[in-house]
Amino acid sequence: MLSANRFNPQLLRYFHAVAEHGSLSAASRQLNCVPSNVSARLRQLEDQLGSVLLERNGPQFRLTAAGERLLPHARQLDTLCTAAWQSVHLDTLQGRLRLGSMETTAAMRLPDVLARFHRHAPRVGVELETGTSSALIERVLGHELDAALVAGPLEHPRLVADEVWREELRLVLPPGTALPARGGEVSLIVFPEGCHYRARLFNWVQEAGLALRGLQSYASVEAILGCVAAGLGIGVLPASLLEGHPRGRQVDSHPLPVHLAVSPTVLIRRRVAEPHPALDAWIEVLFGGERAAA
Predict the structure, then answer these.
(1) Range(s) of the domain holding residue 134
(2) In whole angstroms, how far apart are CA 146 and each of 57, 125, 190?
(3) How many domains does the chain fold into?
(4) CA torsion angle for 71, 110, 108, 80 (degrees, to 10)?
(5) Mean pLDDT of 119-125
(6) Over the range 218-242, which residues count as b (16 or more CB within 10 Å of their CB) and which as e?
(7) Residue 102 is assigned to a structural domain of this protein
(8) Is the separation of the CB atoms in 151 and 199 below 8 Å?
(9) Phi, psi of 15 (to 5 degrees)
(10) Do 214 and 76 fall into the same domain?
(11) Does the pLDDT at position 92 exceed 90?
């Protein structure tokens, strides 16, 4: 056990997140990191304090007596850090921040991030536009958006692209439906032209030796899940969305080959741009935990 002056208070963020949300997966979503990073930081904190703070109960965690005593201090530190950050940035962080995002990312990944950013910068007006990766890239290049979350990997001489999350794409099928056999036909439910996930699904159809029977295009996650659940066709969506969306339980899913399944989500912004304190603050909040790895 270390002495108090060598204790790392940053580790309390991980403890606080698990204590509030009850699981590693939920805490990792809040902190924008993978569950293994949260678990490692918890072990490090317990080693530094010389006490067990959380006990596992299946996928959930419950506080030990030591954890119960520590939690109020972790909450106070979180409040103090927010107040300290705002005391420096509140006067400068105002105006408008124009962000773009894929529909799937906006639905499942962004609400917690937007809430944290609003607490840090309440005077900034955030405008969020959803669309396909291709359309969002053009809007960032055209100075219509300050930054966007799109499917990667991406290399462009005028853009900076940083990986934020790494998604696992899965085929989405009507309940009880088997994958069509090679040489068969398939109907697809997809996002509009320019969507990276749509392109991955078309590649799978070609590699699986299937013929396209029908195609329906929707710009809404709700519409795609609803149509697949109703038996209109097959789609492709991130596993994180299927796990967290209420309609995810109404469809079946099947893994894609690894070269089609792994899809990083990257934050893009212009390489040459005017100073934008609100965007800098957004990036700080977005990457406030640790950058996610596979």
Answers:
(1) 95-166+264-286
(2) 44, 13, 27
(3) 3
(4) 0
(5) 90
(6) beebeebbbbbbeebbbbbbbebbb
(7) yes
(8) no
(9) -60, -45
(10) no
(11) no
218's tokens: 């929707």
Question: Please, which residues have CB within 8 angstroms of residue 281's CB and are 6 or more apart in sequence?
Answer: 89, 93, 117, 120, 121, 124
Distance CA 68, CA 251 (A): 40
- For residues 149-158, one letter each, b for 16 or more C-beta atoms within 10 angstroms of the residue's C-beta and e for the rest, the string is bbbbebeeee
**What tokens were used for 150?**
């799109």
pLDDT of residue 8: 84
For the record, the structure tokens of 165 come out as: 């999350």
How would you classify residue 231: left for phi > 0, otherwise alpha for psi between -120 and 50, otherwise beta?
left
pTM exceeds 0.90: no
Predicted pLDDT at 290: 40
Could you tell me the maximum CA-CA distance found in the chain, to the nearest angstrom?
68
Mean pLDDT of 242-259: 92
| Residue 61, amino acid | F
Token duo for residue 120 = 């840090």
Considering the domain architecture, whether residues 28 and 105 belong to the same structural domain is answered as: no
- Are 11 and 71 contained in the same domain? yes
Q: Which pair of structure tokens corresponds to residue 202?
A: 């078309």
| Distance separating alpha carbons of residues 272 and 50, to the nearest angstrom | 49
pLDDT in tens, 169-178: 999 999 999 9
Q: Is 143 helix (H, G, I), strand (E, B) or coil?
A: coil
